[in-house]
Design a protein that fits this description.
This protein is mainly alpha-helical. Helix content is 86%, strand content 0%. It is found in: Membrane.
Amino acid sequence: LKKVVSDWQLFQRFLVYVRPHWKKVVLGAATVPFSIGATLLLPWFIIRIIDDHVVPGDLDGLFKMVALMTAAVAIGYFADSIYTFSLQRTGQQAISAMRSDLYAHILSMPRSFFDQSPIGVVLTRLTSDMEALNDSLAIGVLSLFTDFLKTIALLILLIALSWQLTLVVMLILPPIYFVSKFLRLRLRHYYDLTREALAHATGYLQECLNGVKTIQLYAAERKVQNQFETKTRHFFKAQSHSNFYDAALYSVIEGITSIALALMIWYGSWQILAGIVSIGVLVGFI
């Protein structure tokens, strides 16, 4: 039976290659407080500018507030750039070390392994699959840490500003969770099929190119071409399904977010008329 490895176990294996570059990780983590602070200051400045200067018509301190908001945005971008560069550099170096270990492991395999495994399949695992792993781990997973902290910090700020509007925002969380969970499982299934189909097609192509003289000798060009088209058709179908669920995931989340935004504007307008929240608070939420 095929052993099922959890995502956490896979990520722990990846962390083994990250540990030698811990200084870059620490440098990136040191910029997180500045990034979170800038993220929190931006809506606060917007609220203060609208409520204290735009609505009353007081333009005396407007330029000062705009300058402070610009400085906060610049600090946030600078901190994010250092964080992104440090962690992506760490991820690239970890993937490079992983690729070297995998290549050394391939070289240590017995001849029976190469008799049973097409060279094209092995080549795909060492190249395109590693690039896909780089996109998923080195770029995606390592950014979850700061995104999670920013979300928690923003949630605390929103509750402090208006817990009623925060509840409206949180209404989208259950449908987003269930929809994303369903689509993510389907997306992962077809993504795995895509990688497998690509490996088989590449392996078959490599075998055909190596044995092209034998194919021509037996006039088997049409048969080989039909088999290759079948393999590429499997890849096309798997990739099409993967693209569909990937697009569906983002479009459904965007649709739910738009509905929540409309509810927030409707409910927030009622609260403004009732004198519960200010215009700046509603704009800050949006």
